[in-house]
Amino acid sequence: SQELEQSPQSLIVQEGKNLTINCTSSKTLYGLYWYKQKYGEGLIFLMMLQKGGEEKSHEKITAKLDEKKQQSSLHITASQPSHAGIYLCGADMNRDDKIIFGKGTRLHILP
Amino acid sequence: DAGVIQSPRHEVTEMGQEVTLRCKPISGHNSLFWYRQTMMRGLELLIYFNNNVPIDDSGMPEDRFSAKMPNASFSTLKIQPSEPRDSAVYFCASSLGQGAQIETQYFGPGTRLLVL
Lengths: 111, 116
Fold this sequence. Notes:
The complex is a heterodimer of chains A (111) and B (116). Chain A contains no helices and eleven strands. Chain A has strands at residues 4-7, 10-14, 19-25, 31-37, 43-49, 55-58, 61-65, 71-76, 85-92, 100-101, 105-110. In chain A, the strands form two sheets. In chain A, strands 2, 4, 5, 9, 10 and 11 form a six-stranded mixed sheet that branches. Chain B is mainly beta. Chain B has no helices and eleven strands. In chain B, the strands form two sheets. In chain B, strands 2, 4, 5, 6, 9, 10 and 11 form a seven-stranded mixed sheet that branches. In chain B, strands 1-3-8-7 form a four-stranded antiparallel sheet, with no helix packed on it. The radius of gyration of chain B is 13 Å and the shape is globular. Chain B starts with a strand and ends with a strand.
């Protein structure tokens, strides 16, 4: 069973449009990490969230961890072709070193 | 810093052969992780080490897989004998911290393994 559920599994948006990716857990998240993976390459760290209600932004990407610390959303404003790739959320659920990952959301940007 | 280094970047082998994947973590990091990524199963944690000691190998698929970390700057993941279903991208990651003080994991570029 998948402990972290990401939605949607894939997303196709027109360049310039906004989009949101969700990451949901049935357990409390002690650390929530967002990574981006370009097709055929390794993972690139985007942001880390730890506190309920915390929100962080990097350029046009904003991520938030809800107050209950069981769901996070990643929002991209005015999407660009460079945003295309696979977005993975990872979570520390047991306060150990293990990060459990979701299956990812494949984002395609249409020019 | 060079980041996490993995070798080889690509490996093509025949079923039954032994495969050894290598990883050099970021200097100073005390935790090292091996992951496998496939389209069907996504990114799965295979095993992780803390201070060179294996902490959790529950993700290792079966006895054909083994991992070692002889020192703080080197780890290997070995598959013997390899099977076509082992074809995947294998990532190594390292991090600094333990428990609640964990920092994020830094990933290597991955090794693409194809077993024919």
